[in-house]
What we know:
The protein has helices at about 10-15, 20-25, 75-85, 95-120, 125-145, 150-174, and strands at about 35, 40, 55-60, 65-70, 75. It is an alpha+beta fold. The protein folds into two domains: about 10-120, Alpha-Beta Complex (DNA Primase, Chain A); about 125-174. Helix 3 packs across helix 4 and helix 5 (about 125-145) packs antiparallel against helix 6. The longest helix has 25 residues, at about 95-120.
Amino acid sequence: MADKPAGWVDFAEVRKIPMVDVLEYVGWLEKLERSGDELKGACPLCGRGEEKQSFSVNVVKLPNVFFCHACKRKGNVLDFAVFYLQKEKPEADLKAGAAWLANLVGEIEQRRNATEDETEIKEPEGLRVHVDALVNAVVLSLERRLERRETLVRDLTDIVLGVLEVIERRRGDE
């Protein structure tokens, strides 16, 4: 496989970037409301339509198609990036949008890694026993090919109740 020339952009890969990550990065995700497989609200591109929720994004299907009923802009995550960049630089094109998205992916990964490093996840005491029991019950039931479904449901219910007790005890200690 030949080396890619400088400035080469894999548009197919760029289009796979989740729209949710882009919306979060630009500070718009929390302004949208979830409705089924879609996020709806005012348009981050034109700013209109808050009352009517004119902007919508399908967050389940790739390529994360969006549409604004107010400004009539539509497309995938790459189109969104171009429109977003054109707010400040009207000459922005697909290549500029792809480059912005590629840089954005790196920044998002750095933020996630920094957050994971700063956040120490403390496991409630006794929770590991319940999680192990849950895993064992599922594995055992799969080995038995779920012949005893009622037993599995009962066992899983007991395990989940045990987990909830551990969590409640933990909250009471805080």
